[in-house]
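call fold(seq) -> tokens
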Amino acid sequence: MSPFVSAARPCTLVVCRGCCCGDRRKNPGFDHDWQLQVLRAAAADSGGRFAVRTTDCLGPCGQANVVVVQPSAAGRRAGGRAVWVGFALDDACTEDLVSWAAAGGPGIAEPPVTLELQFISAPREARTRARR
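ret:
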């Protein structure tokens, strides 16, 4: 194992807040700040089971808001891989993301069926970077 990767690395929700995700002009009917507050509060209350971080544009702007659910170290060892979720624009999706991450995320817990309907393919650039 790399000295830079903790054996206890939790499932991580990577929330895009780039050019389109989190943009009130593109999705005016959704409270983007509220979503991020809910995700961060749930992570803080999870006892370290999952973490939340934001990033700049992830690429699939036509499917904003995008959240990437990265597996924990244990999830990765169990075969879990990052899952891209698009159109994360309602309370139910936010709740599904929290419940899946709290349960262990990819490789550990099955995602909510309703959340599976929002899975999207990673952009080609992300798939290429992951193989390097």
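Helices lie at 32-45, 73-77, 91-103, 113-116, 124-131.
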